[in-house]
Amino acid sequence: MTESDRAPIKTLPLVFEEPKGRGKPPRHLADLTPEERKARLEELGLPGFRAKQLSTHYFSRLVDDPAQMTDLPAAQRDELVAGLLPDLMTPLRTMEADKGTTRKTLWKLFDGSLVESVLMRYPGRATMCVSSQAGCGMACPFCATGQGGLQRNMSTAEIVEQVVAGARALDRGEVPGGPGRVSNVVFMGMGEPMANYKAVIGAIHRLTDKTPDGLGMSARGITVSTVGLVPRMKQLADEGIPVTLALSLHAPDDELRNELVPINTRFSVAETVEAAWDYARKTKRRVSIEYAMMRGINDQAWRADLLADVLNSYGEWGWVHVNLIPLNPTKGGPIFQGKVFTKSEDGDMDEFVRRLEAKGIPTTVRDTRGNDIDAACGQLAALE
């Protein structure tokens, strides 16, 4: 494909509601509170107290084979499992990189929608990157998921199931390094988490609820990413859940960000960064600014200076950290001012870091993993 064959970047309409006409996934115990799980079984004419046993199998023992649920009566086991533990997603493909410590899974949901999750094991921790929507309506032109549009929101249980699947793989020693547990979850997979707010908050509760009601994770190990849905950012600040907020900024000026992140035409850089500052102020949790480094597009030294000035205008108590991301380019993506979206040169990234740190902004360059398995979210689903 030549440059002339590619469509130019344009501001696309924003989608905040999923397309109509799609059915809902089956109700699962991860969608429900402990009280609701008990009531669900009673609605089905089954003993409500069995809900806690099913929760123990799912969240504590990480069991996915009903035959191993020997404390459930054999005569009712299938009914109980069907009532609270229906199948939610089917793995279509799992690809590995980094000697097996990075595992990307393509999942097929009940209605045929495709989503992706990635398990990344590091020394001392294991992180699950999860999807919150099938597709995405935010239309960021450099993102594979954004190019495909939004299919639908995921349910709370579909989000949680990605983490539980990773927890099973670690618990069973399927990932190099021996048995382990998921210590961190990042909502940086397919979709805009804040556009599926209710399900995402429900998933955070299930992940942090004490076992056997949930996975028993620390909220401080959970990061929620957003391109800047300001009203939802403010709402999250009032939830009282100390998760980390990650703002995908990608440009410090409205002129460029309007094109790279179309939601910026509704909420400006100033409004978005102020909402992030407000989150840090209320929660006392440092905000992460995500900045994908794109060669010749947003990696100029003067933009590093401008980014530092924008962030420093809200205080100097260390409320923010910048995470530079070498762009994982998508195949067949659009052209921006005659340039193909690709990652910045190492020297330009080094200078960007130097400029930010010179103005007191803590900065790191993300350790990229899985480039050889299309690990950027949406790439595997697009190939499928």
3D architecture notes:
- The chain has 384 residues and is an alpha/beta fold.
- The protein folds into 2 domains: 29-84, DNA polymerase, domain 1, CATH 1.10.150; 88-383, Aldolase class I (TIM Barrel, Alpha-Beta Barrel).
- It has 12 helices and 14 strands.
- Strands 1-2-3-4-7-8-9-10-11-14 form a 10-stranded mixed β-sheet, with helices on one face. Strands 5-6 form a two-stranded antiparallel ribbon.
- Helix 5 runs parallel beside helix 6 (197-208) and helix 7 runs parallel beside helix 9 (269-283).
- The longest helix has 16 residues, at 156-171.
- 46% of the residues are buried.
- Residues 1-15 have low confidence and may be disordered.
- Its main location: cytoplasm.
- It is found in: Cytoplasm.
Brief sketch in words of this structure:
The chain has 384 residues and is of the alpha/beta class.
The total tally of domains equals: 2
Query: CATH superfamily assignment of the largest domain?
Result: Aldolase class I
CATH architecture of the largest domain: Alpha-Beta Barrel
The count of DSSP E runs of length 2 or more, i.e. the number of strands, is 14
Helical content band: 25-40%
Distance, first to last CA: 20 Å
Question: Order of SSEs, N→C?
Answer: HHHEEEEEHEHEHEHEHHEHEEEHEH
Supply the helix-strand structural class. alpha/beta
Total of helices: 12
Can you tell me the residue ranges where pLDDT is under 50 for at least 5 consecutive residues? 1-15
Shape: elongated
What is the C-alpha radius of gyration, as a whole number of Å? 21 Å
> What fraction of residues sit in β-strands?
15-25%
Widest sheet: strand order? 1-2-3-4-7-8-9-10-11-14
Mean of pLDDT: 91
Organism: Nocardioides marmorisolisilvae
Domain Radical SAM core: 122-371
Binding site for S-adenosyl-L-methionine: 191-192, 225, 248-250, 328
EC number: 2.1.1.192
